[in-house]
Amino acid sequence: MRIGMVAGEASGDLLGSLLIEALKARYPNAQFVGIGGPKMESLGFESWFDMERLSVHGYIDALKRYRELSRMRRTLVKRLIEHRLDAFIGIDAPDFNLWIEKRMKAADVPSIHYVSPSIWAWRAGRIKRIRESTDEVLALFPFEPAIYEKERVPVTYVGHPLADYIPLEDCKAAARARINCHPEALIFSLLPGSRESEVAHLAPVYIDTARRVLARFPEARFLVPFANRASRQIFEDALWKAEARELPFSLMFGHSHEAIAASDVVLVASGTATLEAALFKRPMVITYRMSGLSYWLMKRMAYLPYVGLPNVLAGRFVVPEFIQHDATAENLSQALINWVLDKPAREKLDQFYHSLHLQLQQNNAERAANAIAAHLRQGRSWQAEPQPA
Questions:
Q1: 150, 151, 203, 234: which has the highest count of C-beta atoms within 10 A?
Q2: Average pLDDT for residues 138-152, to the nearest whole number?
Q3: Ranges in the chain annotated CATH 3.40.50.2000
Q4: Tens digits of per-residue pLDDT, 333-384?
């Protein structure tokens, strides 16, 4: 059996790796091909392109790289069809994956989109394209299935894999021991994003924010995890430019979960990392910057007043967000300082986080594997029975 997958960034790589593990438990001889990252490759996934090539930041970046991404997509579809797949799974990255899924579906390959596109936040008109492109959507959040059912799009709520993967109880002490942090230190984690373009936009303001936090808490320390060497180099260049090499930063390759778990407060770029911070029960400040034109376009299409997943899932602001022009070092540092000083607010937030974690903890990999197995059993040529999970 051959299963195609495409993951476009670090969060998709993690989701893909957990799904591969669950599918391999049922189908030990299955082969997985397409585009993935190091976590997927460590499980035998054959990645035909570097996952980082899919990384774009906003509409303007996407337009600049349209030709390159179009060539990659056409080449990928050709190879996937030649491999006579038994299923194709697009992991997030909807602008890239839905195009592929539609062509896989036309070639009689079951096509599943894993991670519902954020149609509830913007681009609601995309749901027609989803219906045409996919055989099923695997939704991670409990409010999403009703949206698809109303539009007659097959959907299964599978919960969020991170809620199974991240411990329900606090693990700060163990995380600090693993990365050699003092158990009583005041630690901030700064997560500037998994894409190089995100890091380039946010590094200067993160550095200035740290300076301001240090003025209030001279004993503070900062953990900064990066998805790859290129992102780290961008941040180091920003440190040199800001003459801030003396600041107490610990720059890390990977280990973002350890950094979040070891921290007291997190400054995070909007995205999956905001959910990770919530599941680790950490107070956070959410921020994001992009090119001016990309921001203008996205703002015109947005339906929700918030972008961070904790706020989306709560339906209200439970953590502060500072986007684009509001993402100043003054605003960010003050919000981080407020979390340190306001213990009742931290305790109230922790109660919400605990409830959210339980809601999303649904044995995701098993549910997702069940949904995918139903498509694999529908008359595919290999005719093998799945093994017990």
A1: 203
A2: 90
A3: 2-159+362-376, 165-360
A4: 999 999 999 999 999 999 999 999 999 999 998 999 999 999 986 545 444 4
Q: Look at the domain 2-159+362-376 and name its fold.
A: Rossmann fold (3.40.50)
Q: Give the CATH number of domain 165-360.
A: 3.40.50.2000
Q: How far apart are CA 254 and CA 237, in angstroms?
A: 19
The letter for the amino acid at 353 is Y
- Report pLDDT digits (tens) over 83-114: 989 999 999 888 889 999 999 999 999 999 99
For 116, which DSSP code? -
Residue keyed to tokens 């997509």 = 73
Say how far apart CA 199 and CA 203 lie, in whole Å.
5
Residue whose structure tokens are 């491999």: 83
Strand ranges for 63-214 from DSSP E: 87-91, 111-114, 136-139, 155-157, 187-191
The string of pLDDT tens digits covering residues 62-80 is 566 667 778 888 999 999 9
pTM: 0.79
Nearest in space to 103 (alpha carbons), one of 123, 126, 85, 121: 85
For residues 132 and 139, what is the distance between their CA atoms, to the nearest angstrom?
A: 17
Q: How far apart are CA 273 and CA 262, in angstroms?
A: 15
